Amino acid sequence: MSIIITDLSKIYGEETIFEDFNLVFEKHKITGILGPSGAGKTTLLNLCSGLDQPDCGTIEGINFQSISYIFQEPRLLPWRTVRENLRFVLNQNAIKKPGPHEADIDAMLELVGLTSVGDYYPQELSGGMRQRVSIARAFLYPSELLLMDEPFSSLDCSLKNRLIEDFSKIWEQDKRTVIFVSHNEDEVRRLADVILTFSDKPIRILKKEYLGDNSKKL
Amino acid sequence: MKISTFLENKQDKPLKKLIGKMGVALFWVLLWALAARWVDSPLVLPSPLKTLEGVIVLAGDFEFFVSIGVTLLRVFGGVFISVLLGLVLGLAGGLNKPFYEIMNPFVSTIKSLPVVSVIILINLWIASGLVPLVVTFLICFPVTWTNVVQGVRATDKKLLEMAKIYNVEQTRIIRDIYVPSIKPYAVSALMNAIGLGWKVTVTAEVLANALPSIGMNLYYSKIYLETDLLFSWTLVIVICSLVIEKITLHVIGNSRKGDGQCPLS
Hey, is the C-beta of A99 within 8 angstroms of any chain B C-beta? Predict the structure, then answer.
């Protein structure tokens, strides 16, 4: 089932972010959202994830128990190792010991090239490695919907390229519905199947663009 | 050559630090000795040597150790209960606003009460021996509670959002996000409670006539004009307080190492 947003309204103080906003996100596709900074793209992700509630309107087709989120910053527990951070979202009780999902964790760490740093703490990793842990966590969690809020924005160019490749590689194996917010058109064009361009507040869709597989510049 | 010099310098550092600290201590003891010589009356200001002799004489009596042991029990009993309840109720107060609103007037009232009033009041209600313990709890609990509430409120909201998105159970959010976040606040509260606990316990022992105790020994030294013993007991309190502080810091340091704290953090 696709995600259907109907007559969505959201106001913060004096600012109207959404007003009678309608949109459909297609299932098993990566939808990239472009728009000016501060327009309210993150608000849309927060509404889709349940972190925020709409003032009016409905969002259908989302199972709120089944969402992964790659944030702009990795949001890892600093007092837990990489492995323990991954076990944390799998609701494993004894976070310090290997659990029933250990084989999945090993496979995911290998996929993102972090096998050798599984027992490191986040502070001991580079920014790119931390964000890769965040990607691994998102795919390890059994979700139907993956939300991404400018996950590559704080990284340098070569690191960004590597992470985009890593992400594509994992997504090809596990095609979840992805909503990917960014203000960088190049990033979005490289990953998305559909690109939506948002206006400034109150948000309107200025352009909707379908990209074939050949259009992706990986 | 350079490496060996570097290593030697590194090994020398703690030794230099220790010598420095001993030098400072020696300076103050010398100053005390000079002042005692200048006053020239052990009744007003006994010398450091006389004070130390007093400690040695006291240590020859079994009751000396009984007094220290019982006072220590009162300090630790009061601090332990206040830290335990401060952690549990502080966590609840930080997480639940109505609970905070209920607790806050009670804690604020205790905080603003003069220690002496609390001691005298409590002494009307319960047995003298228990007064120091209850008073220590009443004085230390607000410190712990306030610190823990602050710790809960300072918890990284972004981590909490992440846990909410990934549908992590509340008990595990408390265990893996809140508890590590409030740890520095709880440690600071514990250290404050221990420091405060000593002073309050000994004061309460004096005012409540709690026996056996360090406080009552201080009091007897005063009424029998044994100023040297008064100084000796005070020295005992200072030494005990320092030793306990060091042991607590050491235990906390070890528990951090074993609790997955990043070695770099």
Answer: no
A202 phi and psi, to 5 degrees? -70, 140
CA A201 from chain center: how many Å? 22
Q: What is the pTM of this model?
A: 0.80
CB nearest to A121's CB, from B163, B259, B262? B262
Q: Is B52 on the interface with A (CB under 8 A)?
A: no
Chain A residues within 8 A of B165 when measuring between CB atoms: 49-51, 67-69
∠ CA A115-B161-B186, rounded to 5°: 90
Q: Contact, B94 vs B152, CB < 8 A? A: yes
Query: Over its length of 218 residues, how does chain A's per-residue pLDDT go in tens digits?
Result: 688 999 999 998 888 999 999 999 988 899 999 988 888 888 999 999 999 999 999 998 888 888 999 998 999 999 999 999 999 998 766 677 777 788 889 988 988 888 999 999 999 998 889 998 999 999 999 888 999 998 888 777 887 888 888 888 888 888 889 999 998 888 899 889 999 999 888 889 898 888 866 455 55
Omega into A98 within 30° of 0, i.e. cis? no
Q: Fill in the DSSP letter of residue A203.
A: P
By residue count, chain A amounts to 218
Looking at chain B, which residue has its C-alpha nearest residue A72? B158
Contact A123 B167 (CB under 8 A): no
